[in-house]
Amino acid sequence: MNKICVPTFLSAILLVSISGFTIDNQADDLERSMERGNELYIAHCITCHMHDGKGIPNVFPPLAASDYMMEDLDRSIKQIIYGASGEMEVNGVVYNGVMSGFDLSDQEIADILNYIRNSWGNKGEIVTAQRVVEVR
User: By its UniProt entry, which Gene3D superfamilies does this protein fall under (predicted)?
Assistant: First the structure.
């Protein structure tokens, strides 16, 4: 290798190593967040949305494989903070109910959403406390 290629080659190896490290850290962060989110889900959400996230047909909408949950992250953040009421269509079914908001920290909201958005057939990007702050 000539002198110009060696630094470029070493830089490329470093970049790939750092990128892999970042992806691994994000996976670890998501896993830990989901563990916390599972506990919060049990404490705050399971009564209406059930242990399997399927809700109660025609009463409480499903979170499992939910088009509504996955299509608008900002809306989901706001609904946990402020609650929701009125009609909403989830997976082709119209629900008309009330969900009260929750007094949770930004990290707790991120954790619940990471759990819901990555369970029961859902696959979402990691939600951070900073994202919740920006939406709040």
Answer: Cytochrome c-like domain
Which residues have a Cβ under 8 Å from the Cβ of 61 and sit 6 or more positions away?
A: 49, 55, 68, 88, 90, 93, 95
List the domain range (segments joined by +) for residue 69: 5-135
CATH number of the structural domain spanning residue 105:
1.10.760.10
Please tell me the total count of domains within the chain. 1
Report d(CA 49, CA 6) in Å as an integer. Answer: 57
When the pLDDT of each residue in the chain is averaged and rounded to a whole number, the result is 89
Enumerate residues 6+ apart whose C-beta is below 8 A from 24. none
pTM over 0.85: no
Please state, in angstroms and rounded to a whole number, the distance separating the CA atoms of residues 38 and 26.
18
